[in-house]
Write a structure and sequence with these properties.
It comes from Leptolyngbya iicbica LK. The chain is α+β, with helices and mostly antiparallel strands and 230 residues long. 14% of the residues lie in helices and 31% in strands. Among the domains are: 72 residues, SH3 type barrels; 64 residues, SH3 Domains (SH3 type barrels). A hairpin with a 2-residue loop joins β4 and β5.
Length: 230
């Protein structure tokens, strides 16, 4: 009996071992295969800074590298006189370089034109500021000389005198204290005298005679540089 049980015991052990091996194999064949959830090709999400940050516009003006000459020392062109006038005269300036026509009533303004002093030229006076006249026309017997209105120094213009007394060809010319025919008479000067200009008011001219100054009425002004007036 002992021999039989010994055989059975050895057989049982073998069977048990076989069952264990079979069970392990069965279990290994039936367990589902697990895979890693990590994707080796994935990357961390990045924030699009251009999308999350608002665009800032550059409002700084572009610099201009081209710089012209400074106009700080040149006054702007002046076209409005302090006093309105309506008179004419001729050039008495003798400078061979010509009479400067400036952009305003001062030598601080640039000369924008030059009128010849070598030929007889008449000018039309439309205003005055101080001792500067605004002229809008200048002409010689041949042509128009002025390109645009401008300012000339009053004493470089002049007129010759005539007389309102048509009954007496030798009657003198009257100068008044004010631009008014009822004002006081300051002097009487010979007819056909050449006088230089100082100022104007309406159609009256303030003139410099050899020994005095006064206001000359329109009827006693002669602005023709080549002949005398009646």
């Amino acid at each position: 009996m002992a021999g039989i049980w010994g055989k059975i015991g050895r057989s049982g052990s073998a069977i048990a071992i076989s069952c264990l091996l079979l069970t392990s194999a069965c279990q290994s064949s039936t367990e589902p295969e697990t895979t890693s959830s990590t994707d080796d090709t994935a990357e961390e999400p990045t924030t699009d800074s251009s999308a999350s940050s608002p665009t800032t516009l550059d409002t700084t003006p572009e610099s201009n590298d081209e710089t012209g000459p400074s106009d700080a020392d040149t006054p702007p062109v002046a076209t409005t006189p302090a006093q309105s006038c309506s008179a004419s005269a001729f050039i008495v300036d003798t400078d061979p370089a010509g009479l400067n026509v400036r952009g305003g009533p001062s030598s601080d303004y640039a000369a924008q034109d030059t009128l010849s002093t070598a030929e007889p030229i008449q000018v039309s006076i439309v205003g005055a500021t101080g001792d500067w006249f605004l002229i809008n026309e200048a002409w010689s017997p041949e042509q128009q000389e002025l390109q645009q209105p401008g300012w000339v120094y009053a004493p470089l213009l002049g007129v010759s005198t005539t007389s309102l007394n048509i009954n007496n060809p030798e009657a003198p010319t009257t100068l008044y204290a004010e631009p008014d025919g009822s004002a006081a008479v300051v002097a009487e000067i010979p007819k056909y005298s050449e006088v230089t200009l100082l100022s104007c008011s309406g159609n009256w001219l303030q003139v410099q005679a050899p020994d005095t100054t006064g206001w000359l009425a329109v009827g006693e002004q002669c602005s023709n540089p080549v002949s005398t007036c009646p």
